[in-house]
Every structure is written in C-alpha cells, then in structure tokens.
Amino acid sequence: MPVIVQDLPYPRINGKYYQFSSIRLRVAGETWYDFVSFNFEDGVERGYARGASRMKLGRTAGDYDATASFDIWTTKLEEFLNLVDPNREGHYDVEGFDVSLDFAEPNMPLQQVVLIGPIINKISDAHSQGTEPLKNTITLDIFGVTRNGRNPIRGINLGSGSAGAPLTEQSV
Predict the structure, then answer these.
(1) How far from 47 is each of 60, 72, 146, 153, CA to CA, in Å?
(2) How many angstroms separate the CA atoms of 109 and 99, rounded?
(3) What is the pLDDT along the chain (172 residues), one digit of tens a residue?
C-alpha cells in the first residue's frame, strides 16, 4: 500500500480560524463594536468577444465595482451618524470617512480590509415582532476594496487605502 504524505497543515488540530468576534471595525478612526453583520464585495464585469464562434475568443478588461453594507443596532444609529456627520450637515453627502476591518487573533497574521472612498447610499429599517433587538442596515457606495494592501485592478494604485500604514501585527 502506498504511503500518502500530507504536506498541508490540515486538519488543523487545535488550530485557530477567524470568527465574527475576530473582526475589529473602524469607522472614522473609532473602533466600532455595535455591528451585527458586515458584507462587502467587489468584482469585475467583463464583456466577451465571440464572433461566429461558440466559445469565447477574448474578453475585455471589464468594469470594476464595489459595494458594502452592515447592520448595526438601532439604539446605536444616532451614535454612528454623529461619528460620520458630527456637524449634522447631511450624512448622505459626507465623503472621506475611513472604514476598515481588521481580522485579528493572537498568534495569527493580521488581515486588513480597507474600503476606499465610502459614502452612505441608504439606511434601511425593517423591524418585525420578536425579542431580538432592532437593527438598521447601512449601505455604502465605495470606490474599491484593498485586502492586505493589494490593489484590486491594475493601473490604479489604491495603496493601503486610507489606513495609510503598512500592515503590522497588533495585539488583540
């Protein structure tokens, strides 16, 4: 019988993985704990050249797009809006506040996501009967997402985003 040599560190016996409580959300320079969920996505929508062929002959570079949303407790909505728009000039028009997520656990590498150029597009209320605390969904329009300082597309340097500094190991 052949001997199978496993060269990957799986299964990770007593190993650690990130979980929801590993996430540190920073908004406008403040660490924010009162969020219930956080969703973001980015991607490229490409066009394809087919001609008279049944298969793809080529593709365009495509259009890059990104969006984000998160849920916070309704009791914290006003605190969030004051953080983003302290002068009460119009929270849908405030640009330039920082949003970043750190995924951190002791003895694990720090993972950082920075949302570039966020602006609030929508605040949703959808409450129903029950015992769970009420929540609001905040939807952001963003220019892009950097993951550990990586640019999502060539030709535009988003750098490490508004966080500005290179990634370092941080205590949690």
Answers:
(1) 5, 37, 24, 16
(2) 20
(3) 555 555 555 555 667 789 999 999 999 999 988 899 999 999 999 999 998 988 999 999 999 999 999 999 999 999 999 999 999 999 999 988 999 999 998 888 899 999 999 999 999 998 889 999 999 999 999 999 999 999 999 888 886 544 444 444 443 3
- The domain locations on the chain are 22-42+65-152
Look up the pTM and report it. 0.79
Structure tokens at 77: 């909505």
Tell the CATH topology of 22-42+65-152: Pnp Oxidase; Chain A (2.30.110)
| Beta carbons of 32 and 68 less than 8 angstroms apart | no
Instruction: List phi, psi (to 5°) of 5.
Output: -95, 120
